[in-house]
Amino acid sequence: MRPDTRAVHLPQPPIEGSRPISVPIYQTSGFVFDDPAVMADGMSRPDGPFVYGRYTNPTVRSLEEAVSGMEGGAGAIATGSGMGAINTVLLGLLKPGDHLIAQKALYGGTAAMINELVGRFGITVSYVPEDDPAALRAAVRPETRLVYLETIANPIAQVADLPGMCAAARDLGILSVVDNTFASPILCRPISHGADIVLHSTTKYLSGHTDVVGGIAVFADEALWKKVWHFSIELGASADPFAAWLTLRGMQTLALRMERHCSNARLLATRLAEHPAVSAVHWPGLPGHPSYELAAKLLPDFGGVFAFDLAGGREAGEKFMSSIRLALLAPSLGGVETLVLHPATTSHRSLSAAELSRHGITEGTVRIAVGIEHPEDLWEDISQALP
Ligand SMILES: *Cc1c(COP(=O)(O)O)cnc(C)c1O
């Protein structure tokens, strides 16, 4: 071969007698076959030979198997974002005329997507509290397909009654879908409480280092996994191998990070609750949080994301945001750095004070996604920014 051709067809030295410790990044869009039957097999199932990057990839499958294993699932589909996973499941399962039931407190992107489904795709929705199986039973109709829940909701950390809600869904013959992003599989494994599908924005705790966007859907049942996979390969929300690799790399320290996120949150929530400038702290590990008793039964610890209300309202919230130094003003959560945001002037800026209160927040509410820094450095920063 001439150099021109050698530059195109690169050697791939076989690895024999040893194997890599770290999962390799298979940065390839497709795979080569000796036998067309093997290729056809790979195109027909999620656990077959590797064919094409939009179907899956060895690095991506490593992530799918790892998260599915942690969640106790039969299989998983990794996606390019958390919203990609949510849409893979909602669009893969719902059709015009179907009804879905969702909890009232939902991640903003999910709430907006459900409005799209209702406005443009002929799907109807009913909202129920996340901890009220009787309300779920009352809302169900013959055309109800699924109930959509979040283990811990944003920003005031309501905890869903997963055992009660999933058991009711099972009795009613509808699927239960749980966004487990805020808890991570370290704090909660919804399939063990009866969920059919578990969703994550892996952008958050699973990857943990604020350097990648990704998502995953984990299925309790193999047939349902394969059904949604067939749809997902046409939808094209697939995960990129490098993003999957970054997620795998971050995930190896998930349990250690969660321990620190939770203990840091406990210290900050406890001290904030005693501070005269703070009128309320919404961390489910504090007695007095509406989910405290449920959370204490369901979760070994209470997560790293919570909100607190400044008694001084909007002005105090704005002053807090401009005074904070170590914590960063940024969206997202679940990374090693502590992030803060003031919903009334950012994520929830289009809402009136009355609408804010329907989300359980005020104009003085600050949301904090606690990182893994030394807790006393965080407290020094937060306390100097309080009025
Ligand atoms: C961030 C987030 C999502 C969306 O995930 P992306 O990776 O940003 O697409 C969905 N649900 C929850 C609870 C989230 O925090």
Structure overview:
It is a single chain. With 387 residues, this protein is α/β, with parallel strands linked by helices. It has two domains: 36-251, Aspartate Aminotransferase, domain 2 (3-Layer(aba) Sandwich), CATH 3.40.640; 254-385, Alpha-Beta Complex (Aspartate Aminotransferase, domain 1). Helices cover 40% and strands 15% of the residues. The chain has 15 helices and twelve strands. It has helices at 3-8, 36-42, 58-71, 82-93, 108-120, 133-139, 162-172, 184-187, 222-235, 241-251, 254-273, 292-298, 313-323, 353-358, 375-385; strands at residues 75-79, 99-103, 124-128, 144-150, 175-179, 197-201, 215-219, 278-282, 305-310, 328-329, 339-341, 365-369. Strands 1-7-6-5-4-2-3 form a seven-stranded mixed sheet, with helices on both faces. Helix 8 (184-187) links the parallel strand 5 and strand 6 (197-201). Helix 11 runs parallel beside helix 15. The longest helix is centred in the C-terminal third of the chain and has 20 residues, at 254-273. The mean pLDDT is 96.
Please outline the helices and strands.
Layout (H helix, E strand, L loop, with lengths): L2 H6 L27 H7 L15 H14 L3 E5 L2 H12 L5 E5 L4 H13 L3 E5 L4 H7 L4 E7 L11 H11 L2 E5 L4 H4 L9 E5 L13 E5 L2 H14 L5 H11 L2 H20 L4 E5 L9 H7 L6 E6 L2 H11 L4 E2 L9 E3 L11 H6 L6 E5 L5 H11 L2
Parallel strand pairs: 2-3, 2-4, 4-5, 5-6, 10-11
Antiparallel strand pairs: 1-7, 6-7, 8-9, 9-12, 11-12
Helix pairs in contact: 3-10, 4-9, 6-7, 11-15
